[in-house]
Amino acid sequence: MDQHSLEIGIFGSDDSFYAMIANVHEFGMTIKPKNGKNLAIPVHRKAVGKSPHDFGDELQPMFTKKGGKSRVYGLGVKTGTKGEMEMYFVLKESVNIPERSFIRSTFDEKHDEWMDYLEQLIEKLCDLELTAKMVFDRLGSRIAEDIQDKMTDMRSPKNAALTVQNKGSSNPLIDTGQLRRRVTWKVVSRR
Question: For a Cys staple, 75 with which of 24, 89, 138, 167, CB 3.0–4.6 Å?
Fold first, then answer.
């Protein structure tokens, strides 16, 4: 058994984008714009998955008055001849993604169960029913499944109302299911 080790999670070597998304959710993060003053958050179904640049000159600034000063709070498209606007993007200086630990919290909650399961597997190893690699594979599979279940069941902290509107669900860790599918394990040889 000391010739192998077990790694569990979302691996950057498999897909660095999803490793980054997992890190943001696991630890939380404040997102600020890289270029410019504001983030453009899509609020219209036609804007989801797009950038304001995708709309060219069609987008117009939407203004609000605060303290006697006008400021741009969104970007929209004119919908009629009377100057009505339909908002496509809200402008924000930053967005706070709260911590939604699904790896560390599952470890804390399930550690004792996993150790009991490992003991059962080691008994089968001693009885020559399993190899050491099989023990690690079965344990890795169980841990990955428990982490995936935690992601499916997580409801808090809730998504912002705008996020729920854009993705169509309230589960904070599930959108397309791609992040959940990338939770996996690797049995690593120490030789």
Answer: 89
- Residue spans of beta strands (DSSP E) within the chain: 4-9, 29-31, 39-42, 59-66, 69-78, 85-92, 95-97, 184-189
Q: Is 46 helix (H, G, I), strand (E, B) or coil?
A: coil
| Residue type for position 149 | D
Of the given ranges (47-56, 58-67, 99-108, 110-119), which has the lowest mean pLDDT? 58-67
How far is residue 41 from each of residues 52, 92, 134, 166, 176, measured CA to CA in Å?
9, 7, 46, 10, 18
Q: Are 56 and 118 in contact (CB under 8 A)?
A: no
Length of the chain counted residue by residue: 191
Q: What is the DSSP letter of 45?
A: T
Half-sphere exposure of 157 (CA within 13 A, CB side): 13
Are 69 and 75 within 8 A, CB to CB?
A: no
Residue recorded with tokens 């008994």: 123
Asked whether 84 and 90 are in contact (CB, 8 A), the reply is: no
Q: What is the pLDDT of residues 111-120, one digit of tens each?
A: 999 999 999 9
